[in-house]
Every structure is written in structure tokens, then in C-alpha cells.
Amino acid sequence: MAGNLRIAKNALYLYSRSIISMVVGIFSVRIMLEALGVEDYGLQAVAGGVLAVFSFFVGALGTSISRFITFELGRGDSDRLRDTFSTAMVVYCSIALSVVIIGETVGLWFLHNKLVIPEGREHAAEWVFHLSVLSAAIGIPQAPYCACMVAHEKFNVTSMMGLVQELAKVGIIYWVSISSFDRLIHYSTINFLMGIGSLLFIRYYSIKHFPEARIKIGFKYDLFKPMLAFSFWEMLGGLSRMLKGSGFNMVINMFFGVVINAAIGIGNTVAGAVTGLAFTVTSAFKPGIVKHYARNDLKAFKEGVTTASLISMTLYGVFAVPLLVEHQYVLHLWLKEVPEYAAEICVIQLVFNAILMATLVGAESLKSMGKNAGINVVQCVDGVITISSVALVLYLGYSPLVACAVFNIGLLFYFGSTCYLLGKHVGWGYIWEFFSRGVLKVLVAEAFTFMILYTVHQLLGDSFITLVINCMLSVICFGALAMTILLPKAQQQQIKAYLRSRYNLSRTAA
Question: Region 54-68: what's the mean pLDDT?
Fold first, then answer.
């Protein structure tokens, strides 16, 4: 039970951080646009984004390193853990050196010869670019330390740091807006210094608390080889997901033009905000699942995957169900004019993303076992079949809504393939347990809650009060269902006992 409570706490840390970060991010974009102006805002994005291609590779290798550090931590082999960290540091320092060389040669040439820079702003663009290269060079070797934080499940520390950074960004933007210096250069410099402060804190915390983070120069080829193989499959899957999204937009644009692209963008933004929150929370489950597998404790591993799926889907439902009921009002509250098809596309995405949430934890558990080749190949096949099917239905004259539905039907293939691969590696008998306890119950709970909220909406109509009431009802319904039918009886009793003990402590203290 302690493990499940730890997972729940980690999930709440990440969920709270994601919600606040999303709100602050939306708010800060508006302030930043007003502070920098349209041209400097765009220039900052362009000049600072020249090196974005490196983040793709670094992100994939970072996932690999995090998995291997967590695995060795679960095995309890301190020497192997230290060797893993040292090998990762050598790899990342090499990548950082490569970024500096390529960035200050090829990247700088691209900046001067290919990008369109407003006249008189060349110096500011160079300043932003050089700071980006320097940030990458210093930040890339930071990944193993961040991986240690994840492996040791210090989500309370990382979440608090993230919130401080988000709030500091708002303060920086306000300070820049009243500055008499060049605002773009001023903003980039202060942002860079804030990043250095964050980097130093994480390194200090890791070195102080995690023995493996105390650098010992070394390189183990037998460790690097599986890291590289794992990263290759992660990059393949990531590339497939990126091409699937871009390919869908390009294909549908060929038949209906940019208007439908705007509708898709709006619909995906609303649905994606909820899905993104729930997806972030899956990070809380990964370390524990990896450690169970490293100890060869398959029973705890399976229980962890099932519980993780149940919690992530429930958290998704808490936000998605009221948004599904109130989508028309929310869209009109957010936008003055809602493009045609945007509301319908939002509904399609919200419904099908429930299946996506049912798949994510299973897919992540396969990666936790180091079995990421199959799931990433599945994503490649899903991308090819989905885009081909969308092109076919559009060629046959069907509406863009049918195309959007066909695009999302690929999630059923993704879910089925994930269950197949999971059953292949941990036993076929587990698949029904995973589906019935971790997926089916939550889907039924979501449908039940939807009916209640939809009835309230029909009685009260479109209004801000209705939106607030339905959001509160969603929390109450899912909370009640979790403590009656979703969670097993033993977990319900232990959670109640935990809450009673906290209540008694607080009452005694009072």
C-alpha cells in the first residue's frame, strides 16, 4: 500500500505542477508578446529554435538513461549504478561538445544565410543564438542528474522547482517590459542565468543525496550498447508520432485548405491540454514499475501497471468528462468565433483520448522492461495505416469529421497491440486483469459520470455556473466511485485509515 500511496503522491505533485504551469504558460505568453512585441517575439522563437533538432536526439537518449539508472537502482547494484551514471556523463559531454561545434559553424551559417531577420536586429539574433548554444552545451550533461531525480522519485523537489521557474518567468517578463535596455537581449540573458541557477541546484541536490551522481570518470561499452539500442527505438517511435501528426494535417489540408487545419488545431488544443496533464502523471509510475521488474517481482510489477492505468485514466476523466459535456460553452468562452468543425473535432479527440490513456501506461511498462522495440514498431505501422486510411476516405469524398474519426481509430490498433505485447512478456492471463480492473471499470465510471453531468447541463443550460457545478460534480463522482468500485477493497480501507490518521493528528495538534 505504501508504494501505491507514494505513486499517488507523485502523481498529484506532477498533476498540480502541470495545471499551474499550463495556466501560467498561457498567461505569460500574452505578457511576453506585449513586452517583446511581435517581431522580437518571433525572432526569439526562431533564433532560439535553430538547435531544436538536437533536443529530439537528447530526449530519446535521456529516456534511455533514466530507465537504466532506475533499473540498476532497483537491482541494488551500487557499482553498476555508478558505472551507468559515469557512462551516461561521458556520452552527454560528447554530445554537448558536438552541439557547440555544429551550432557555432553550421547553425551560425544557417542563421546568417537562411533565416529572415528584421533589419537592424541581426545583433540581437546572434546574441539569442549564442546563448542557446551555450545553454545546450551546459544543459545537455545535466540529463543524467535529472534522470537520478526521476529514478529516486523526487517529484516533490522537481515539481516545486518547476513551479518556481514558471513564476520566475512571469517576473522576468514583467521586469523586461519596464527595462530601458534591448528587451530581447535582456530577456534572453536573464532567462539563461535562471537556467544556470536551476542547473546548479539540481547538481548540488543530486551529488549530496545520490552516491552514483558523484562523478567517477569511466565508460562501459557493455552499458552504452543497450542504451544506444533502446534510444534508437525511442527515436523511431518519436519520429513516427511526429510524422503522423504532420502527415494528417498535410493530407487534410490538400482536400479542405487551411480553415479545417485551424479547426483541428483548436480542437486538439482543448483536448490535448487535458491529455497532456494526464500523460505527465504517468512519469510518477515509471520508477516504481522499473524497480519491481529489476527485482523480478512480477506480481508487484503487474499490480503497479494496473494501478497506474486506473489512476491515470481516472484523473483524465475528472477533467475530460465535464469538458466533453460543456465543450460548446468552453469554446465560445475562449474564442469569439469558433471555426466550423472545431467543436465536433474536440468531442472526437476527447472520446478517443480515453483509449489513448488506457494505452499509455501499458506502453510505458513495456519500455520499463527494456522491451521498447515492439511498441515503437507498432507506432510506425499505426502511422502508415492511419495516414493511408485518412487519404482514402477523403479521396472517396467523406467529410473531415469522418477523416478525424478514422485518424483516431488507429488508437484501437495501438491499444490491442500494446495488450498483445504485454501479454507476451508477462503472461496472457494478466491481460484480462489489466483490461477489467485498469481500463473497463474506469470507462464505465466515465460513462456514468457523463450521464449525470449531461443531465445537469440539460436542466441548467449553458452558463458559467453550470460549468463550475459540473466540474465539482465530476470530482465528487470520480472520488466516490474510486472509493467504492474502482479501487480494490483493501486499498480503499488503507486509504481511509491513512486519512483518518492524518485527521486525528491534525485534530490533536489543534
Answer: 64
Lookup result for grid cell 487534410: 252
Residue 490 is placed in which grid cell?
483493501
Residue 194's H or E segment, with its range, is helix 183-209
Selection from 190, 189, 167, 186 nearest residue 178 by Cα: 186
Q: How far apart are CA 398 and CA 450, in angstroms?
A: 29
- Provide the residue type at 147 as one letter: A
What's the gap between Cα 205 and its chain centre?
Answer: 24
Distance (Å, whole) CA 275 – CA 272? 5
For 108-120, how does the pLDDT look when each residue is reduced to its tens digit (9 = 90+)?
887 777 666 777 7
CB 277 within 8 A of CB 319: yes
CA dist 225 and 231 (Å) reads: 10
Burial of 159 (C-beta count, 10 Å sphere; 0-12/13-18/19+): buried
Residue reference for cell 494496473: 306
Q: Which residue type is seen at 31?
A: I
Nine cell digits for residue 68: 537504466
Helices (H), 103-140: 108-113, 122-139
Q: How long a stretch of residues is the chain?
A: 510
Using alpha carbons only, give the angle 274, 276, 281 rounded to the nearest 5 degrees: 105
Give me 41's grid cell. 517575439
**Long-range contact set of residues 17-21: C-beta below 8 Å, sequence gap at least 24:** 17/159, 17/162, 17/163, 17/280, 18/276, 18/277, 18/280, 18/281, 19/277, 20/163, 20/166, 21/162, 21/163, 21/166
Question: In this structure, are residues 212 and 69 in contact, taking their beta carbons and an 8 Å threshold?
Answer: yes
- CA-nearest of 421, 437, 432 to 364 is 421
For 171-223, the pLDDT digits (tens) are 777 777 777 777 778 778 887 888 888 888 888 888 888 887 776 776 777 77
